[in-house]
Amino acid sequence: MTSVPISNEVRGNLQRLNVGAAILHGVQAIIVLVAANDFKLPVTTFFLNDAPGKGLDPTRLTQQFDVRIAWGVFGFLALSSLFHAMAALGRGRTAYLAELSAGRNRFRWVEYSLSSTLMILMIAMVFGITEITALIGIAGVNASMILFGWIMEVVNEPGKPVWFTPFWFGCIAGIVPWIALVIYLFGPGSEMPNFVYGVFVSIFIFFNLFALNQWLQYKQVGKWRDYVFGERVYLILSLSAKSALAWQIFGNTLAA
To answer: I want to staple 36 with a disulfide (CB 3.0 to 4.6 A). Which of 84, 184, 230, 254 is the partner?
Structure first.
């Protein structure tokens, strides 16, 4: 396996970045959980009560349980804090640096598969998507998008020809939740609060910047020739995207 040496200076810089990210994510998580109200959204089911084609019966809409949104926001912030701490300390740091020297980072992809899925679920519920099978589908396809990113790194070793198929499959998977969000954002009778449009635009941009960062890494564009530069960009994007979503939701639904 081809490896890329990482200098002690770069190792120290990455450790400081991960420690800083762990602290900032963790502090925000605690603030959100402590200061938030008990704003909740329902998770529902909708079953046809007759054979298909006989029409919809609104009475079949059933509320299964409520989700306290503050816990979801706390969850994606806390997960990021935990994984950055793991990457910065002890044996986790050793494994993290070994991953980077091989041109990959499984810490990132495992964390993103959990945290970004929580993020997209919180967005979907705020947009009014509450049916349980829709939420399961959105979660599954978002996690698949992230795991395609992991596969992209596993199959492409530094210095070898790049196979972009996992990247494009990830892009296809990644657009699916946003199609659902557009349907709810601009569908007939939609009257969303202004902040919802802000969430849509800002997080859509951030999600696509993650994909762009990986594309630039594997196209070897400018500073992205250095894999560690792309890692730093991932760190900044992760902190920025999670912070933006957390405070947009907090300021508009969770503020006590």
So the answer is: 254
